[in-house]
Amino acid sequence: MRNYDFSPLFRSAIGFDRLARIAEHAAANNGNSSYPPYNIELLGENRYRITMAVAGFSMEELDIISEGEKLLIKGVRKESDTERKYLHQGIAERGFERTFQLADHVIVTGANLENGLLNIELVREIPEAMKARKIEIASGRMLESEAAE
């Protein structure tokens, strides 16, 4: 396994230490299963959608948990009363857990299950205090006169 040194990237960046943890986590989970398959779509400047193929799962068998900067999607198959004999079983019937790391200020706004696809809607809501604002520049004379008051 390779170890990456991110320190040169952080020489001029302040507060991005979480990025290194995310990269390390992604590298450590490189061998994880790709089940179930999913897409991540960019719908607009601050809107996203995760679409996950969960054929055979009912709404009662799926859980979506958003906690802090993590989104956990879990599928737990209920035990079937009927025993089946398969000649070929190509549809996976196993449970799964998939975790996504969310960026700052990204929240889940909704989810729906349609035709075996689970769609999870996400939005980045940047607080007003975090948005760019223009800073007025005062002249040195103005500051001196304000200080005298």
TrEMBL record:
<protein>
    <submittedName>
        <fullName>Hsp20 family protein</fullName>
    </submittedName>
</protein>
<feature type="domain" description="SHSP">
    <location>
        <begin position="29"/>
        <end position="140"/>
    </location>
</feature>
<dbReference type="InterPro" id="IPR002068">
    <property type="entry name" value="A-crystallin/Hsp20_dom"/>
</dbReference>
<dbReference type="InterPro" id="IPR037913">
    <property type="entry name" value="ACD_IbpA/B"/>
</dbReference>
<keyword id="KW-0346">Stress response</keyword>
<dbReference type="Pfam" id="PF00011">
    <property type="entry name" value="HSP20"/>
</dbReference>
<dbReference type="InterPro" id="IPR008978">
    <property type="entry name" value="HSP20-like_chaperone"/>
</dbReference>
<comment type="similarity">
    <text>Belongs to the small heat shock protein (HSP20) family.</text>
</comment>
